[in-house]
Amino acid sequence: MLVKRPDGLLVIDFKTDRITAEEVSGRAELYRRQLELYSKAAESILKVKLLGKWLYFLTPACAFEIK
User: Fold this and answer.
1) CA distances (Å), 10 to each of 4, 18, 24, 49, in order?
2) Which of 21, 43, 51, 58 could form a disulfide with 8 if both were Cys (CB 3.0 to 4.6 A apart)?
3) Which of 21, 11, 25 is nearest to 54 (CA)?
């Protein structure tokens, strides 16, 4: 999902992995490269500054920012 704000763009990727809250940061590392590629593509195509990259794990209903 792309969220265009007046000051830039947020990239949010929803994940359906069934994990616990304790496993979120470790699992997020598996998706780091994928989210970086999505972000570069969105920035390049839309010519908008990237504000942040987020993963949202549906289970356990937890957001994780990729920095």
Assistant:
1) 7, 24, 20, 9
2) 51
3) 11
Q: How far, in Å, CA of 20 to CA of 62, rounded?
A: 9
Give the pTM.
0.91
Sign of CA dihedral 18, 22, 24, 27: negative
Domain ranges of the chain: 2-66
d(CA 43, CA 10): 10
Per-residue pLDDT at 10: 98
Q: What is the pLDDT of residue 55?
A: 98
